[in-house]
């Protein structure tokens, strides 16, 4: 399932604006990753509510009309299916009448010969009618079922599109497993509730209307006896339906939570195993399942009571009809055939009442499950809120003017404080500073993954907030420290950066990223599958493939966030030599802790507590007695490749 992988990448790493930056995950605190940004618009707030319960959990008209609107594109098929349904229901309703008449033929015809003749004629007629009914049923089933499948597909596409277009804050907050559950289980439930369920409900309705009509026609007096139980069943059904709607929401939420736990652990098996936590994880998952089971058992006991009650009602109807019918037969106001037909109609009506209750409860289930999905569809995606779309040349100075920024989950902790920063075009700049000082947040703002609280970000003299987001991201390449590759071949992964790239271009990008040699050494070369998130490659290999994927875009601005940290110093040097050539006169921003990486930069900006503390070339900074010198000295005193801070 491809969407699962994409969602994983957006949410699991997403909290660390994962599309671009994997490096946070490895660092001490999942920094960006933990944030939950409070959204400005009320609508989006609603959409992002954790277990977003709408206050009004009752069935509203708009809930239902939205639910039914899903079926609109299938109108023609559904109407045909309903036509066929009327035919098959008509045939079904003819059965008791037919059986009654057969019994009357058997008991009332005088001669053997005449009985045989009338039976032959009548049963032949009935058989023909039954065949028509069966054909109608087959058609109805196929049309309804295929419509349900089409609706589910369309609905999933819409939900998936709504999810991937959400703002980054959404992915900070949501869990992959939960989203996958919404996409698979909830959509299935909803599409069933507006197709097969409607069909079954209509069939029940036909049986009830037709059955009651036939009962009244056969004997109005007996009908009153048989139908006296209906109001009680109807009230019971409504109460049961409401209960189910609430329960469905809870069960689906609990299921989503358990899927999340399983998904997160399964996709991080190395961590689980390296801590020998297999048994703990089984217990954790089982706890979640226990919560699901608890809710399901509650639902089941209610269902058992309800269905027991309806079953009893059905039997009571049959018994009372037998009782009064027997008395009426003895007074000759009813024939044997009439009583038999009546009994069968009463049984039909009883079964159909159960069917109608089940239709209502499934509809409630559907509305319960659909509320979360509609909330998702209603929440505005990041591009939807975009009002301006300038597409200027990006190769120019990048200026942060008095920029203040905090993640909405931590409104009191400013990451950037009135920061002023200029990153000059056409050169490479290294952003350095203690862990957590805001380096990656600067990149996140540049990529418009988040918006600053105040201040201006200008690129080549143009306000970033006026720029077309897709255009901006297409022309900037970002390589994270722990890049995410998709479970496709090396070639497909690289073409993710430029889908129409030729094989030559792919090889050139690999060469520039110093990856061609090891890719060529794989038996399948470019077609080598990299495994989920690149699990079948080493850390350094993954980084180089990710670099090639970024370089194939030939970006105006290249951002390397610890992008070569897993390479040995020799390979790193070769990569930087290549980058110097390819990115000549382009802007390169490097976030690094390693001295060997920092030294490659033309200019170094040292950040501290969300502000620029120092700036200059390596030699200038090392000569001054500032933070940079302090950081580098501490690094040199320790082992060569450790971070400034622990
Ligand atoms: N999504 C988030 N939600 C809330 N706070 C976050 C989020 N991401 C990062 N932070 C916080 O913002 C601050 C700056 O983080 P940032 O990732 O920009 O630092 P950094 O300088 O890149 O650190 P490092 O060198 O460790 O990568 C940190 O205090 C971090 O905890």
Automatic annotation (TrEMBL):
Every copy of the ABC transmembrane type-1 domain together lies at 81-365
Which keywords fit this entry according to its UniProt record?
ATP-binding, Membrane, Mitochondrion, Mitochondrion inner membrane, Nucleotide-binding, Transit peptide, Transmembrane, Transmembrane helix
**Listed GO MF terms:** ABC-type oligopeptide transporter activity; ATP binding; ATP hydrolysis activity
InterPro entries the UniProt entry points to: AAA+_ATPase (IPR003593), ABC1_TM_dom (IPR011527), ABC1_TM_sf (IPR036640), ABC_transporter-like_ATP-bd (IPR003439), ABC_transporter-like_CS (IPR017871), P-loop_NTPase (IPR027417), Type_1_exporter (IPR039421)
Transmembrane portions of the chain: 78-99, 119-143, 201-218, 224-243, 304-325, 345-363
Q: GO terms for biological process? A: oligopeptide export from mitochondrion
Q: Where in the cell is it found?
A: Membrane
Domain of life, source organism? Eukaryota
**One GO term describing the cellular component:** mitochondrial inner membrane
Q: How does it sit in the membrane?
A: Multi-pass membrane protein
Q: Name one Pfam family in it.
A: ABC_tran
List each copy of the ABC transporter domain by range.
Answer: 398-634
Is Transmembrane among this UniProt entry's keywords? yes
**Which named protein is this?**
DgyrCDS9794
List the top taxonomic levels of the source.
Answer: Eukaryota, Metazoa, Spiralia, Lophotrochozoa, Annelida
């Amino acid at each position: 399932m491809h969407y699962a992988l994409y969602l994983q990448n957006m949410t699991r790493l997403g909290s660390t604006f994962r599309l671009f930056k994997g490096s946070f995950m490895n660092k001490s605190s999942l920094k960006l990753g933990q944030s939950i940004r409070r959204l400005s618009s009320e609508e989006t707030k609603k959409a992002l509510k954790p277990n977003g319960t709408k206050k009004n959990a009752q069935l509203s008209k708009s809930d239902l009309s939205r639910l039914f609107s899903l079926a609109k594109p299938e109108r023609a098929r559904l109407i045909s299916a309903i036509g066929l349904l009327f035919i098959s229901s008509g045939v079904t309703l003819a059965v008791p009448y037919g059986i009654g008449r057969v019994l009357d033929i058997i008991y009332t015809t005088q001669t053997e010969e005449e009985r045989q003749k009338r039976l032959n004629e009548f049963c032949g007629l009935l058989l023909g009618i039954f065949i028509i009914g069966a054909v109608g049923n087959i058609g109805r089933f196929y049309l309804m079922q295929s419509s349900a499948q089409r609706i589910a597909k369309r609905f999933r596409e819409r939900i998936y599109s709504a999810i991937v277009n959400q703002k980054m804050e959404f992915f900070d907050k949501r869990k992959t497993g939960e989203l996958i559950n919404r996409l698979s289980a909830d959509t299935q439930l909803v599409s069933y509730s507006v197709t097969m369920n409607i069909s079954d409900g209509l069939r029940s309705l036909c049986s009830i209307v037709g059955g009651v009509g036939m009962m009244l026609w056969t004997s109005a007096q007996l009908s009153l006896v048989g139908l006296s139980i209906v109001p009680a069943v109807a009230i019971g059904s409504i109460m049961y339906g409401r209960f189910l709607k609430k329960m469905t929401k809870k069960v689906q939420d609990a299921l989503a939570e358990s899927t999340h736990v399983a998904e997160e652990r399964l996709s991080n098996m190395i961590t689980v195993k390296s801590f020998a936590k297999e048994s703990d994880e089984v217990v954790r998952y089982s706890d979640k399942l226990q919560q699901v089971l608890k809710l399901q058992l509650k639902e089941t006991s209610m269902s058992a009571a309800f269905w027991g009650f309806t079953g009893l009602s059905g039997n009571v109807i049959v018994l009372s009809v037998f009782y009064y019918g027997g008395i009426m037969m003895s007074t000759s106001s009813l024939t044997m055939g009439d009583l038999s037909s009546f009994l069968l109609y009463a049984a039909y009506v009883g079964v159909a009442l159960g069917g109608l209750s089940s239709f209502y409860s499934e509809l409630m289930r559907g509305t319960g499950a659909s509320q979360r999905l509609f909330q998702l569809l209603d929440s505005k995606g990041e591009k939807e809120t975009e009002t301006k779309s300038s597409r200027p040349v990006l190769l120019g100075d990048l200026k942060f003017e008095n920029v203040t920024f905090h993640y909405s989950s931590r409104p009191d902790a400013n990451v950037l404080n009135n920061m002023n920063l200029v990153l000059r075009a056409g050169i490479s700049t290294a952003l350095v500073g203690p862990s957590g000082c805001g380096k990656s947040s600067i990149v996140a703002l540049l990529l418009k993954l988040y918006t600053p609280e105040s201040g201006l970000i200008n690129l080549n003299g143009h306000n970033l907030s006026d720029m077309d987001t897709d255009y901006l991201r297409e022309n900037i390449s970002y390589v994270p420290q722990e890049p995410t590759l998709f479970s496709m071949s090396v070639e497909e992964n690289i073409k993710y950066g430029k889908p129409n790239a030729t094989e030559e271009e792919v090889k050139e990008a690999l060469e520039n990223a110093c990856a061609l040699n090891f890719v060529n050494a794989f038996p399948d070369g470019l077609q080598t599958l990299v495994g989920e998130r690149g699990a079948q490659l080493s850390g350094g290999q993954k980084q180089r493939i990710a670099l090639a994927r970024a370089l194939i875009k030939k970006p105006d601005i290249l951002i390397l966030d610890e992008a070569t940290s897993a390479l040995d110093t020799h390979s790193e040097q070769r990569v930087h030599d290549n980058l110097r050539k390819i990115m000549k006169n382009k802007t390169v921003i490097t976030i690094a802790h390693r001295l060997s990486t920092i030294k490659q930069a033309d200019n170094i900006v040292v950040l501290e507590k969300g502000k620029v503390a120092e700036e200059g070339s390596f030699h200038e900074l090392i000569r001054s007695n500032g933070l940079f010198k302090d950081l580098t000295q501490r690094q040199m005193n320790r082992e060569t490749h450790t971070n400034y801070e622990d």
